[in-house]
Amino acid sequence: MSVLTSAAQAIGLFVVTNIDDIIVLSLFFARGAGTRHLTARITAGQYLGFGAILAVSVLVAAGASSFLPTEAIPYFGLIPLVLGLWAAFRGGDDDDDDDDRTVGVLAVAAVTFANGGDNIGVYVPVFLTVGTAGIIAYSIVFLLLVGLLVLAARFIATRKPVAEVLERSERVLFPLVLIVLGIVILVEGGAFGL
Question: Cys staple from 119: which of 8, 17, 36, 143, with CB 3.0 to 4.6 Å?
Fold first, then answer.
């Protein structure tokens, strides 16, 4: 398999498994609008969360499935569910306190990782078939594309019509998207016998 073919497959795989992150990241940008170093915090969180997804995928593909049993992956849906419920609870406050609007690196990382259960489920079988050189190539392409994903979300969130809609509805959309994301991860993964 040529390098170009591997790169094209890695790009396609990344896009298919991460397109939903644009919505979540756009909401993070809307939630933290006007705060300092927002793009840096979101980028760091996205890299941290995606790096964990990649590490788990590589470890499981390498045979370290005892590190993270596949049955545990659906329970990561609890992370965005709890964060969404907390945001909904905090969203009832009318004050626009900066602490309520701050987007933290760990919150972005946690949501990214929790949303990555499907990524792990897709990456592991691919990694099992491409060998060590392929895993390295895929990982490099994926890590480059994470930055582009953040930039795309920032671009979308800062377009005036989109930004206005996000700003008006962020207090409802942000918790709602996280709660729905958490429930979908739990249900699709069969957590709690769902």
Answer: 17
> Taking the CB of residue 69, how many other CB atoms lie within 10 A of it?
9
What is the amino acid identity at position 39? T
Cβ neighbours for 11, distance < 8 A, ≥ 6 positions apart: 141, 145
pLDDT > 70? residue 99:
no
Q: DSSP state, 96? A: -
Domain that holds residue 25: 3-193
Q: What is the pLDDT of residues 83-96, one digit of tens each?
A: 788 878 876 554 44
> Which residue from 110, 151, 114, 112 is spatially nearest to 21, judged by alpha carbons?
112
Secondary structure (DSSP) of 120-148: HHHHHHHHHHHHHHHHHHHHHHHHHHHHH
Cβ distance 88 to 171 under 8 Å? no
What is the domain count for the chain? Answer: 1
Helix (H) / strand (E) containing 40: helix 38-61
Q: Which residue has the higher pLDDT, 67 or 136?
A: 136
Evaluate whether 116 touches 53 at the Cβ level (below 8 Å): yes
Confidence of residue 97 (pLDDT cuts 50, 70, 90): very low
Which value, to the nearest 10 degrees, does the dihedral of the CA atoms of residues 60, 64, 69, 75 take?
Answer: -60
Count the helices and strands in the chain (H runs, E runs). Answer: 8, 0
